[in-house]
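Feature request, filed as a ticket because there's no other form

It would be nice if the structure record came with a short human-readable summary line next to the tokens. Right now we just get the raw output. Example of a typical job, pasted below so the devs can see what we mean:
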Amino acid sequence: MASSEIVDVLEEVFGADRWPPPLRRQSGDKKYLLGLINEAMANDDKEISKTSLILGSLVLGEAAERVFESIYSKKLSTTEIRLVDQREHRNDTDYRLINGQGRPLYRLNIKFHGSLFRNAKEIVGLEPADCFPLATYKIKSALDKQDQEHLPYLFVVVTGSDISAESIGNMLPPIFVQAAHFGRQIISSGKRALEESIVQRFIATNKDRFAKIVGAIESARWYVLSARRAQELMKEKLFERVFALKTRSFNRAYRNAEIDMHLSFSEDMIALEEFLELIGKEGHFKLAGMLERGTI
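Raw output as currently delivered:
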């Protein structure tokens, strides 16, 4: 891949005014930028496959969130409750549901479930296709936010699609992966913003490919689980479903692995469409009580 092509993509992504501060003054100097990219390419010792996976994950997340918005608008499109996109804040909240007065009702965090836990039946008693791992620290973090704000925190889980962040990363045009990979090396800040901008560029210039990804996720199954229910299930089934607690020297055997609580889609969660219908049928206040008690 020619360094000049990489600079062309970066110039398209950043434009005239969006280059990070260290490079802003030289953003119009293509020779200077070519020198930086050539140096990065010459000294590169990183696996570009990691960049491919990051971009694949971002594309996958963007597609999943668009499908979620479509499901939401069909099941709960009302002036009394509105969906507010929070993704730009880049925290653990993707959306909020707010009422007609602008008061927040729920926090929503979307999780995409890809690879199966092949030995789930033997290890945590669940069929691989019915098993979702959720890091225990994420449950704790979600409940901390819920208690601070008195705002129910919900995990929305997407499963059943045969598409993954890895497969999407492998299908991305190499120029986008190269631009993200070497672009990260010549800037000192705004690395995630660069990746997200390149993803948006990919979506804008590869609409048919992106439409296929969206279509695959539309055929997936969507579930909802409250943070409170996740906590209650963890307390009830701690040694049954938390593999790390049953494994001697877990940290040595599984370096960098998270300590997960394994949850059942069929037993522990509710379908997203059913959840949205419940809001319309029962009303927010009754549902909020169910969420706080861990019923959902």
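Something like this underneath would help us a lot:
The beta strands are 81-85, 95-99, 104-112, 131-135, 153-159, 221-226, 260-264, 270-271.
DSSP finds 16 helices and eight strands in the chain.
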